[in-house]
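User: Okay, second chain of the day. Same drill as before: sequence in, structure tokens out.
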Amino acid sequence: MGVRYSRAVSIFLLLVVFCAGSYAAGTREDPMAKAEELVGELKYNEAILVLTEVMRKHPDKFDEAQDLLNRIRKARAYYNERYAALIEAYQGNLEDAYPIIRELEELDPDPNEATVESLSLAKETAGFVYNNNRFLVIMKQAGELIQKEQYNEALGVYASGFDLSRDIFDDENYGNILVSQVDRLTEELNAAVSAVLRADDSLKTSLTAMTASLEDQRPFRADLAALVSQAVELMDLHSAFRVLAEEFLTLEADIRSTRLDEKQIHHLIFLNRLIEGRTDMETSEGIRYTLEKIWIRDLAQAENLLLTETELAFQAVRDAYEEGRDALPPTAFQRSLELSEALAYTLKAWGAGILVKKDFAPQTVSSGLIAEKLPLFQWSLLLLDTLKGLENITLLRNALTEARAELAQAEDFEAIEARLKSLSEVEVSLAGERSFWREKSQVFSAYVQGPGDFTRSLELLAGMDERLQETTVVFENLSLDALDRKAEILLEPLQESFLQLTQDIDRGGELLQGLVEIRGEGEDAVAVTFHYPDRALDLFNQADDNLEDLRSGLTGVSSFFASAETRYMETETMIRRVDEAEELRASAEEQQQIVEALIAEAQEKIFLAARYRQEGEQRISEANTLVTRNEFAAAKERLVAAAERFDESLFYQEDPELRALRDQRITSLYEEINDAENALVIREVRSLITQGKSLYSLGNFPQARNVLLQAENRWKDTNVEANPEVEYWLNLTQTALSVTSGREIDETDPLFAEMSQYLNQARADYRGGKDLIDEGKQQEADFYLNRAEKNILYVQQYFPFNKEARVLNMMISKIRDEKQFLEIFKKDFTEARQLISTNPQKAYIDLKDLEAIDPSYPGMSQAILEAEYAAGIKVRPPDRTKINQSARLYDDAVRIYSDGNRAQYPLALSLLDEAIRLNPDNLQAVRLKDTISVETGGRSTSVFSNEDQQVYLEAVNALTSGNYLKASILVDILMQNPDNQRNTKLLELQERIEALR
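Assistant: Same drill. Structure tokens below.
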């Protein structure tokens, strides 16, 4: 160090504050601005060159340049002051020199070559001293925290030294690859420290949660599993730190080897020592040692907690056993098992530390663990066996106690032999327990020879040996007698079998008669009956087989009774057993007759179900044939008949497959038929609409109405909802008919002949009176005209709006006084036109009558046309607004149709109906409506699902019996199914109910 120190001092003394250089003249930018920029960047040498050029070429900027030079001098003066402080520190305390060097590097980011060399030498020497002293402080502070068991804080102190000598390392310019490798390892080191802190926090949280669970007698396995997992994770991190420490040392050696440089890379060595600690220290230190302390502390807390709880729980079980209870307390026993397993599970976690090795030698954490923890671990496992052993011995003890009580009541030798035979299982179990515990004793005799104290385990073994000896003594003093029990054992299964077969017969009878299931809840609940003769037949056949087995068993019982000594059979107990057997035999014979009858009934119903199913299949086949001939109505009838046959089949025998076939296949075929028929219906209805519109436009309203009624009825063949277009024209036609009704007398009218006679006579009198007036014979003419008016009045009493009568009346008024008539005509025409807005029907009738008198009267044609529009006799031609609106609605419908979203087709149809109403001549809308209607298919049906068919029939019966409320409720329930909302039968029933309520 002495040579380098002398050289550095020499360089410091030769430091030059201002360096010479040249400034490239000729720049076009503002030199003062450039100088300001260079000063801001601390490039003082370049700034001085620029300012020198400015003062030479621009005297007018001398003062401004001088001010900037003063700033540079001040900066240089401070720099020189810090440099002098560096020289003083370097000659005295190198640790103080290191921060000054860092400051000088920041003050002059672009020093001259001499300065760079001097600072580099000084930084290398002072940096080691500074960082080494800082390392010693870190290790001391962390060690003190470890002594205080403040392990997390110690980790933080160690982590604060990860940047030791990093700036010196960076100054060596080792290259991006090496620097990146060091950065990666350092990031992994920081991440590992953070992971330790997180795992420790999680472990503490799990320990707290487990403590609370144990105190509250709640499940704790999840908390324990998390705790052990976190403990293992800590030891995994322990290994990760070892790998990182080795990589830092390996990398340091590789760098020096590659660069042929003996100089140590202190940054990497410091990182290694922070992890592993110093090898020459008497006490352990470093991150890995701190992690070991954390792990041991946390795991020991969990172990101590569980050990205390385990000992208390086991003591409770042992006390219960010693008290001679019939059974160990379930809760205490189960908890003792759980705690013992948990303790063993926790003790196994110490193995994570035992397995931590380096060069096949145990690490610090492994020291003494085997000798300390193995005995406790083996004790916890033995405790589990002891608990199970206590439970087994308790069961054996109870069995022996029960046997003793039974033998006290034994009366014959065979019963004793039977009891002794039954106790052979107890003997086998007891022998098994003794063998098990002998093996355990042998195992632990080997353990005792090794390290550790196994006293607690040996105590457990001794206690179990004592208890087994006690049980063996009890067993050896026992004998059994159970002849009555043997007879009971023979009869008991036969009695249970008989009880079971009677239950099977009863259950089969229920299945045969039908099970009622309630579908829905509250007011929506309905009862549906299902019959299962096939399942009933299985039960009956099984019962028949069981009856045969029962008879065979009773024969064995009789043989047993026959083989027994007479004196035993004469006892009251055995007599009772014999009576029981005879009673069972008689009951079996009675049930045999019942089963035979039920089997026959079930077979008949199965046969009927198969027959009706076959008939249903035949009706479906017929429907398919009829569809090919476009005989849709007949095909639908066949489908309805098929559904009825399937319903009959399901009435006799419930069959989910048939039910699905009936509900899905028939519905599907019905919809296919509807769709096929619907295509024809749409074409026919379109033709009828066109014909009806034509007749309407010609004024043939009765015929138009008949045609449109045909369209309406034909539409109902495949659709439930009315056709808005048909309804629109039908309403118009009916409106026109209401206006024109009574204007002419129909030949079918009962008064047609009589009224025609009066009208003919009135016409003849009018002509006669007119001829007389033309001859100037007024008085004679009045006779005829008065008689004509009398006949007209008679007709108008029955047909006040009859056109011929009203016109003939006006013609008479005209020839009586033409001048006065013209005034009345003008007045009537004016009043009729005024009525168009308020009473268009009357206005139309009055105008048509006036037209018959004078069709060329000014304004007559226009007034009649307006009245026809207002009265609904004619449809006003659409104006441009309606035409445009109709086109827009058509375009909206086209977009919906183009998207192919069938769920939106009803909306498209409503848009098209409105478009056609606004503009009846919108042929595009008409064609698209028919296209969509065909694709949508017919939506009416007459077929229910099988279950809904039952509800429908119940509703019909309720209506027939006058229970309108029940019928209405059942219809509402059926209507909740969207498919039923288009069922014509249900809609008709709903209308009937509404009409009667």
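The longest strand covers residues 515-519.

User: Thanks, on to the next one.
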